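Bumping with the actual sequence this time:
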Amino acid sequence: NIHGELLSPEDAKSKPLEVAAANWYASGWLVSKLSKDCLLVDTGSTSTSLVPVLNGKVAAKGFNDLEKLMKGELVYTGALRTNVAAIVSHIPIRGILTPVSSEFFAQSGDVHIILGHISPEEYTVDTPDGRGTSKVEAAARLARVVCADLDILTMEEVNSIASYVYEAQLHQIIEALERLFKNFNVDFRDKPAYTAGVGGEFLAGKALTLYGFRNIKPISHFVGLKAAKALPSYALALMAVEFLEGREPRNWMRS
């Protein structure tokens, strides 16, 4: 739950607000075993969680998604499923800042396919138009965001759109970092920062670099790539070992 306790199914049912969307705590608990003072930035398919750790404890101040949004501990920008219209309201097209359609024409997965950040196989969610995950299909979806198609826009122009949206995503994460720093009155930039999730390196890691973090460590270096992409589940399994067996889990860290 939000206090780092493992509950029985019966207790969980009686305290739904304490267990709903509390997976971030498990991830923070795991990185607290790596550094007593640090920040975890986990960018998944849909959102980015920022989990502060201070004095060896998860120090989050938000205990539900609303509070976390308010305090800079959550931002709804992710590597695959974020509606492009939720990232930008305008896109520069041929020198003119052009409004986007609010329809669900393209999502962040299309942006990152075009930019080469993910492979078609890593595009694991449904596409907005039900078509494939090739670069050309993604480009066609992204062109529709400004009510165009690939007969109207060139691939070079669509690549520029993708780059613009990507930069906007990075700034969404940076804005959350600024809010978090203000709420904690702590500058985490001199502390280790761990990245996780499918967008851990090209979104979380890049945003941290732009914001001046100097000690950025992909969590995959410690737990492997597969575990890093599903860090809350992996961390919860280790937490269960500690809770049920009364000992620190062994051999969980890669040598």
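The tokens above came from a reply further down the thread. The longest helix spans residues 155-184.
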